[in-house]
Amino acid sequence: MRGDFVFVDEVVAGIRWDAKYATWDNFTGRPLPGYLANRIVGTAALCDGLARARDAAASLGLGLLLWDGYRPQRAVDEFLRWSELPEDGRTKTRHYPNIDRSRMFELGYVAARSGHTRGSTVDLTLFDLASGGLLPMGGDHDLMDPVSHHDAPGVPSTAARHRRALRDVMEAGGFDAYPTEWWHYTLRDEPYPDSYFDFPVTVGRAALAPRREARRLLEA
Questions:
Q1: Lesser CB count within 10 Å: N end or C end of the chain?
Q2: C-alpha dihedral over 135, 43, 49, 195, to 10 degrees?
């Protein structure tokens, strides 16, 4: 990877992660192209912001659990391809119970040009530092439904407070919220606002390839 793209867990101590798109546990029901390791990658600037958010969360007895960071463009392209396939029902009940998969892009839950691909956006939630348990948020990651919107009506009061706490700590870290997804935040002063990268998330010798690809994209 380039010098300014790093594994977040190697830079921001104390965070937890579960890279959903490297697993079968996501709305497509399969690992996505470009996710060759269950790791979270992001820019150095993203990590600086997450460190500030981590400290703000810790002051409340809370920690950060990351579900996604940098997302290769090939994974976003696969979202589009998947959205055009016939419905098989495998993930609909959990992730998009009230819409057709073909409308995910139209409704803003998925974008053909994702902030994640710029390297300074994260999907995340809060956990209790004492127990390790995730805080109830009134809906899971990638639930594509109005209940996932910030300040959605009908969200239990406890979950609404937890969403507010997440927003407070992320704003303290320099992040802006995405209106339709309570878990999605983008660094306000992201270093690559107009760049969309496509190197894979990987480890070992193959990690040399992303470095070359990212440099090529920046110089294009």
A1: C
A2: -100
